[in-house]
Amino acid sequence: MKRLYILFVFSLLASASFAQLDRTKMPEAGPAPEIRFGDAASFTLDNGLKVFVIQNQKLPRVTYSLILDRDPILEGDKSGMLSFVGEMLTAGTKNRSKDKFNEEIDFLGASISASSTSISASTLTKHQEKVLELMADVLYNPVFPEEELQKLKTQAKSGLASAKSDPSSISSVLTSKLVYGTDHPYGENETEQTVDNVTIEDIKNYYNTFFRPNIAYLAIVGDVNMDQAKTLVNKHFAQWKQADVPKFKYPIPQPPAKNVVALVDRPSAQQSVVNITYPIQNHLPSPDYLASQVAGYILGGGGSSRMFMNLREDKGYTYGAYARIGSNSLVASFSANASVRGAATDSAVNEMIYEIRNMRENGITQTELDAAKANLSGSFGRSLESPATIANFAINIERYNLPKDYYATYLQRLGALTVEDVNVAAKKFLKPDNMYITVVGNGSVQESLLAFGEVQRFTTSGDPEKQIAMDEGMTAEEVLSRFYDAVGGEAVIRNIKTAKIESIAEMPGMTLGMNFYYDENIGAYSNKVIVGGGVMSNTVMKDGKMSVTVQGQSQTLPEEQYEAAKLSMFIFPELHFENLGYGMVLDGIKDVDGQNAYKLTVMNESGISTDYYYSVESGLRIKTDGQASGEIAYSKYKEFNGVKYPMQMVIKSPMIPMPLSSEIKKVEFNKALDKNTFN
Amino acid sequence: MIRKLTLSLLLSAFLALSVLAQNKIEFKEFKLDNGLHVILHQDNTTPIVATTVLYHVGSKNENPERTGFAHFFEHLMFEGSENIPRGKFFEIVESAGGTLNAGTSQDYTVYYEILPSNQLELALYLESERMLHAKVDQTGVDTQREVIKQEMKQVMDEQPYGSFQREMPVRLYPNHPYNWPIIGSAEHLDNAKLEEFMEFYAMYYVPNNATLSIAGDIDYEETERMIRKYFSEIPAGKKAPYRPNIEIEKLKSQKVDVVYDNIQLPAIFQGYLMPKKNHPDTYALNLLSTYLLSGKSSLMYKELVDKQQKALQAIAFPNDLEDGGMFLVLAIANMGVDIDELNVAIDEVLATVKQEGIDQNDLQKLINIKETQLVNGFGSVANIAQSLAQGHVFYGSADYVNSQLDKFRKVTAEDIKRVANQYLNKDSRVVLKYLPKPTETTE
Q1: Assembly ipTM
Q2: What is the annotated signal peptide range for this record (chain A) (predicted)?
Q3: SS3 for A322?
Q4: A105, A478, A548, B373 — which has fewest CB within 10 A?
């Protein structure tokens, strides 16, 4: 009894001394945990469908993912078609209308989604029979309704329109074209034209050719046992007919022989999107794949990387700077990117190149390696929570012929990497003298970029900008004078003091009326937007003020906004550039949708500028582009009282979701206007 | 570093979760002498561990003259502690292979780390440092005040329709602290003195106002030992935390207002009062919102988005709160659709449910959707940890996670019709008409 008591006291003491906590020391990590994840069982159907079953009974749910393993496809003049396939597949079947299909899936609390290379279904286990039936219906019986394709095309085109004003999208189109070339599946990009070219037949052909079991994997992950899985798979997928599927080979893109600077000029830009990139050969089976990922992480993988610390924390050029060494079975790319302050563009490029070269030449440190290993193992561990990760592992092993224990030994191989291993990979993948240095930003940075190589200019569609020679002696005044002559002569148009212009814009599901009223005698302007017979908004400029009335609520706008919009209040703004004190710069000849045009940059005193484009051939104004008003294209000029006026205007603006095409229905010059027009 | 601490706003609020009976979430609970409530859930399938500390303090606990304090702390609590150097919190967790974040609501503030399971002790160390002696000093206050002013601009002013977080509650809760936005007022933060922050810390960031929940690859005994090691020495709070005890007054009549915002498309936001978070009717209201807007076959999506094409997008959201939540119905108008016409269309859809109710088939669909959502939520130990803590704090038991689906199953089709009529009441609601701030003309 006494003995016991002493022991008890002892143990109390022991625990008490243990509780003397030294809080100045952070706790050490325990022994690294063993990573356990489900093993995939697999079998193959007679039609060639390879099935992986990853049993995970943690939760009563299951996911069926059908994945096609085909070569990348060069879509050519139908570019964009593949992006429609998924939505088209789930837009109704021979057995179920789109509405019925949605209702049945929703009823089960399940989901089915598709793309051009996959169909996936996710459900609670107890509904799997029914959900598999629906999934099979999508696979075997899609009807591809025409109206759905039209809807998708419209969406795609509005997406394209807005992409042209989005610097990140411009940058990604430009870099994909440069790195892979436009005749490579990874380098081609859709345009309005290629989207228009897509037909239902194309989608049906694609479906018939490529949705074949002999190139497909089916991954089943979740609460399902092998016997059940075999029965269900045989029931739903054994009748899937195999067929030969074409294979494609593509040339391997090579990095440029020396650094090339590619610039897209966006006059309104205050930031530059910088992306330094080139093609590389790197993929999961490559012996130095893991080392390349560590190198990429240290160079620019997160919030404590070299790029980030240098460009953001030290220099403050940007909110974030990143780099990655990509991987892909066909061809991958290296990329270092940042959105930087316009004025710091060349300095930022300089630092980014410095970091790339420095890592290649001087390698990494042990501390960096340790932090990178910890971080990469941590994200690997977290990724295993999602059952889809384990399915991907099984498929990758099969698809890329990886060793069976590739993922089982992932952490061990990561842990074994040395500084030297990473330095070797850095030397191999970092090529500071063979890069495309791309900048989407204000053209004024062009001079400063010459230090990094020859500067080539590209359009917002990522195509080389055409350099068109302008006649010697051409002046801004001459461009305007030709414009006046083209529309009917300066004297004639100066004589137009009032105008009433009525136009109609058709949009999906509605018609928008836009009426413009000008009275230059009293210096007044009004723009009324009419919906369903009622005035939705009315913008009025007069007496040096601008006000907007929306749904009965009226507001006077700040003076800067009035100043920025002021030119809109004239029937022919050109006539007023000079007397309002606007500066004009003739900036050469540009390609505007296939037409050569003089570009005239017109700037007010506070520096807000608008670009005016005049056709070299006809002299007519064909486009204006400004920060305040967006882009407006003018076409179909028609004569009224001896004056030519455009009958069509297409407006693209970040303020509206899609290009707005308005047809002008009525033009009246020099007729008295109702005196309430401008109230 | 992307130190973006997220305000857990309405639309991203965590779903409280539950699973099927046959998938019971097992857990162990104990309380330290200082009042810290601990909940542990072992799940060894993935070698990671999620550590969550939920403090039972949100914007409703604030002094009306000092709004924004709760959220301010969500930032301040990353400034470091006596032993953690300023600004190192993120780096420590990330270079240990983890990830972390925090969130603030009207009712609570939550912090979490997800780390490899051999780093559990690190998470406990960091969280205990935060609870014991976080850095509440002038430098931290000054730094975070500026960051939060940027955040205010971003979430309230720059984000389209973001101002509804201010505009809706101010009208719906005339007499209750839910009245002000979680992010609070810049002026209040400017006026606050360091002592006030210290008092707030001393009152709310104490073990007896906190719930520590850990889910993942743990050993129960070892984890308990480590928790005691790091948290036992933290003293309990001296003063009882202030909790408002105010019955929310219902509006006497409908409030309709126009809000101008930096948006392109007009929108309607309807807000209705909900009962208290643990009231049985919240389940029926939750199912009602699922019926209205969840999936392509839901009533309001089909009617307003697909068929009539009056709305580009629509959402119904039951934001349940401890003292009484708000049921939100919002719709963004398609180009050119009149805002009043959209409001009428929403009311027509709501009237259909109020008059006709739903049938058994509809009800079954709602239960099926809910069941799937709840099961999927348990695919993540981080969610499990949060749900256990929320169950304990707001529903009286961590076992709430296991009983939630049964509560949904008890809802009848009649209940849904009844709650639609009882709570989605036109006469005591708020309707906000969002209109674009006038800008330049397009020509």
Answers
A1: 0.83
A2: 1-19
A3: strand
A4: A478
